[in-house]
Amino acid sequence: MITSSEFELSGKLALVTGGGSGLGLSIAQKFVTYGARVVIAGRREDVLQAAVAKLGVNAAYKVCDLSQLSGIGALVESVEKDFGEIDILVNNAGINLKKNVLEVSDEEFAEVVRTNQLAVFSLTREVAKKMTVRKKGNIIMISSMASQYGIPKVIAYTAAKSAVEGMTRALAVELSPLGLRINCIAPGFIETDMSAKALNNDPERKNRVLSRTPMQYLGKPDDIGLAAVFLASDAAKYITGVVLPVDGGNSIGF
């Protein structure tokens, strides 16, 4: 555990949705490294169990399908009853749909928006109800390069993530006077098993990604985890309402 730093999260409890794998797990790992206790939430119990075994004694999990909005309030109550007050919420869970825009049905569009936007709002609202009473709290959204510029075949995902960035700013204006900070991370192209497989099988797309990334390489999951630690810590105590691209310059590349 790292201590004696403005980045220290000792004594904090973080709830990380989608924390069993990918970027969510990397965020949870960095939170634990910097002293926080972490509760990860997701749909697949076996994945959550494996993640907690990796994260260690300062981690626990809750099984929850966030697309079932009616159960979100109960999730928050259960976390606070079992583990204490939630200091940090990371809205990381999400789904995607890669499909030609002319073939996307209303039902498919709504399903992506339900998980990536409505569930994010609902969970944020329920956690914020607790945090505003205590006059302190930290909420971190996870956006995407899809909200920074146009990417084909992900229209529903783009719409939802763009809404998340708008909500970040609106929530910060409304809730920061009550003691909360709300910020957002917009990951660029990060080297995960899934992305590596996709890009390695599509050299043209990989070259396109790297050609518009000034730093000329893919990010690592830890880059997102460390950004989340920063935004959750006292090192960022005067920062609210920002969307932070962690992308090697991809969002401003030419």
From TrEMBL:
Source superkingdom: Bacteria
InterPro entries, A to Z: KR_dom (IPR057326), NAD(P)-bd_dom_sf (IPR036291), Sc_DH/Rdtase_CS (IPR020904), SDR_fam (IPR002347)
Gene3D superfamilies: NAD(P)-binding Rossmann-like Domain
Species this protein is from: Chitinophaga niabensis
Family stated for the protein in its record: Belongs to the short-chain dehydrogenases/reductases (SDR) family.
One of the GO BP terms on file: fatty acid biosynthetic process
UniProt protein name: Gluconate 5-dehydrogenase
Residue ranges occupied by any Ketoreductase domain in the UniProt entry: 12-188
Keywords: Oxidoreductase
Gene Ontology MF term list: oxidoreductase activity, acting on the CH-OH group of donors, NAD or NADP as acceptor; quinone binding
Pfam families recorded: adh_short_C2
